[in-house]
């Protein structure tokens, strides 16, 4: 068997990327995603594509923020690993699959081949996430009316709130940031992401109880693919009252009132309380995601 040839694509041969089967439905899942041809890479064996990866970033990013489309042909896990190892960008890998993929043998085999390739390349699984998509036919979640929501222009207020929220968090990405740089790093990463989103800063809101205490924050947003629940967070001293649902309902209404025809969201599979709130609010799980981190030495280089 000949060794695979790994190379980047450009506008002239971008069609090569589409010659590999798509058993996990990545094309449909990324129908609103815009990729740059030169951020797509393929592994070819005897002229045939046996692995592919699409690295992605925002329109103004100078380097990708993740690789969110990764496929390998049957039996080509080593080629897939070589594709990931040889890339000039060692960033987070997202593997997306249809909801309930473990229950379908064909989907399970396809996903496990990609997981094997990622592990061979030195990637470690950080977390599994549930991806949601709300549409108007599902009905708007009821607003409980227990909290008062106000816009807050001061980033320092959100920074302080995020530090407090992440001091007792179930979110795997936040926990990784805390491990690597403390609560300040976790809070700043969140702020940087929300500023990166192409949605107005004026949308960010703080929620207050009738007594004037801060209950939490919610950040309605648009990512490059459309409207989404950017962040839902309840203050540690206000937990146990079901306020996460109130924040989620308000966030959904807020986006719909500003023209959203769908709203996407995500939470870690292990965040059972938040998953229950999404279910209560009528958000169905449409896909599942496995987030892998590249080798630690690549992240710190």
Automatic annotation (TrEMBL):
<protein>
    <submittedName>
        <fullName>GNAT family N-acetyltransferase</fullName>
    </submittedName>
</protein>
<dbReference type="Pfam" id="PF00583">
    <property type="entry name" value="Acetyltransf_1"/>
</dbReference>
<feature type="domain" description="N-acetyltransferase">
    <location>
        <begin position="163"/>
        <end position="301"/>
    </location>
</feature>
<dbReference type="InterPro" id="IPR016181">
    <property type="entry name" value="Acyl_CoA_acyltransferase"/>
</dbReference>
<dbReference type="InterPro" id="IPR000182">
    <property type="entry name" value="GNAT_dom"/>
</dbReference>
């Amino acid at each position: 068997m000949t060794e695979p040839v790994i190379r980047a694509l450009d506008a002239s041969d971008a069609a090569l990327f589409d010659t590999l089967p798509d058993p996990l439905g990545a094309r449909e899942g990324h129908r609103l995603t815009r990729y740059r041809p030169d951020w797509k890479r393929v592994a070819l064996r005897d002229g045939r594509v046996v692995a592919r990866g699409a690295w992605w970033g925002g329109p103004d990013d100078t380097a990708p923020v993740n690789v969110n489309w990764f496929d390998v042909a049957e039996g080509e896990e080593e080629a897939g690993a070589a594709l990931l190892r040889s890339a000039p960008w060692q960033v987070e890998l997202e593997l997306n699959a249809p909801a309930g993929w473990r229950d379908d043998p064909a989907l399970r085999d396809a996903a496990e081949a990609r997981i094997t390739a990622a592990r061979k390349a030195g990637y470690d699984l950080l977390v599994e996430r549930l991806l949601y998509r709300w549409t108007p036919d599902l009905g708007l979640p009821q607003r409980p009316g227990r909290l008062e929501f106000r816009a807050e222009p001061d980033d320092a207020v959100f920074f302080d709130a995020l530090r407090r929220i992440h001091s007792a968090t179930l979110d795997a990405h936040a926990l990784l940031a805390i491990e690597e740089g403390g609560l300040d790093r976790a809070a700043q990463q969140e702020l940087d992401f929300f500023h990166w989103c192409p949605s107005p800063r004026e949308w960010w809101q703080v929620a207050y109880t009738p007594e004037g205490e801060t209950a939490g924050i919610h950040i309605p947003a648009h990512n490059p693919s459309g409207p989404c629940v950017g962040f839902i967070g309840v203050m540690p001293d206000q937990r146990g009252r079901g306020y996460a649902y109130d924040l989620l309902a308000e966030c959904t209404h807020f986006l719909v009132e500003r023209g959203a025809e769908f709203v996407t969201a995500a939470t870690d599979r292990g965040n059972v309380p938040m998953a229950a709130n999404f279910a209560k609010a009528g958000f169905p799980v449409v896909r599942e995601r496995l987030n892998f981190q590249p080798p630690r030495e690549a992240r710190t280089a």
